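Notes from the 1:1 (GR / supervisor)

We went over the backlog. Supervisor wanted to see one worked example end to end before approving the batch request, so GR pasted a single chain during the call. The sequence is below; no edits were made to it. Supervisor asked that the structure be written out right there so they could see what the output format looks like.
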Amino acid sequence: MDTDLYADYATTVNAVIAFNPVTDICQPDFPTTANQGQADSPEGMEIGHQDVYENLARAKQLTCANYVHENLQIPPVLLMHGTADDTVSYHQSIRLYKKLVETKKDATLYIIEGAKHGDVAYYTDDNLARVIAFVRQNLRK
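Structure output shown during the call:
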């Protein structure tokens, strides 16, 4: 994004907010599709129309935690995930959160009890207030 096309806009990321993210396609704990992990699945197509579990070295390149280490400078991260998510297991967020904390990153995780993927529970006044506070805290002038 650092091109002349967007020269008037900063490309610095001040914060990351992720609701129910897939953080590791190598883990078979998110039943996103009936063809999960196969060459024609979304994650299979992302690695060049290959089976994820037969091409773990390539698939691991899409695992967020593999890039997180103590010397990496990253902005604060807010993760939210529901325990009833039947599209992406909330363990995806927990694993990434643990890696972020282990490497001394500024990370916050909210587990929303009983919430499904994209559930209205994410948009309660309390949760939206958390998101707004996080954004305000991390805005840079």
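Supervisor's comment: The first helix runs from residue 42 to 46.
Batch request approved.
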